[in-house]
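Field notebook, page 264. I keep forgetting to write these up properly, so this time I am using the form the group agreed on. The chain and the ligand, LYUYDEPV, are recorded exactly as supplied. Prediction of the bound pose follows.
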Amino acid sequence: MRASLIQIAVDPDESVKARRQRAASLIAAQRGADLVVLPELWPVGAFAYTAFEDEAEPLQGPTHDIMAKAAADAGVWLHAGSFVERAADGTLYNTSLVFTPEGERAAAYRKIHRFGFDKGEAVMMGAGDELVTVALPQTTLGLATCYDLRFPEMFRGLVDAGAETLIVSAGWPERRRAHWTLLAQARAVENQSYVLAVATAGTHAGVEQSGHSIVVDPWGEVLAQAGAGEEVLAVEFDPARVATTREQFPALKDRRLGLAPPRL
Ligand SMILES: NC(=O)CCC(=O)C(=O)O
């Protein structure tokens, strides 16, 4: 299976409209891949909180339509990263979209863990509450967005729902890049799954982005990792290795659920 991770740079000097067109061109160049993945909030920037209200779109808005067409034109499964969704009741969500190679929307995932503690996304956006998996002919994807990477129970939930390839679409700061690489490998090892984690490049809202998108196999080996700048990370991987890894080293079968709490 061939995947292309588009580590697009989010530059405040480029308009959202221009970046959407540029993303579509980058996707067009990936014809021949099976799966293309974009990062979190690449139209506006994951830390550009002051722009969230103005750049919010309905689920089926400009980002949706341009990405649907880009998937169909390139004939690829497309995880289009996320955008700021304004729901019918006015609530904002950090929403990822997946399209089929025919340009049909296959899934929408609203980020479950919002980042920012008492500010930013955490107070400006609603939280999703549904795990999302997407069955491709070669593998089943489990969807996660950025800060979700820190919550292993969410990934275990995706694996329990059938996920074999975990997608992490992110806008991760350079300051915490060591966590990014470590957590991507940890999620792959503990879930005996591929992890395809794509981050943005560039600096926006004063936050330098990490880049270093990464693909990890079910044994925890790094198959490929990008540098800091804008880049397309292309990899080929064998989805059947998830089943063989889980058969040959069946740690997932040794889980002990429902343990008694400590006696006081
Ligand atoms: N956009 C995000 O979710 C950022 C997450 C982050 O910076 C971190 O977990 O560290």
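OBSERVATIONS:
- Residues 40, 46, 115, 146-147, 150, 171-173, 176, 179 surround LYUYDEPV (CB under 6 Å).
- The chain has a mean pLDDT of 98.
FOLLOW-UP: compare against the apo run.
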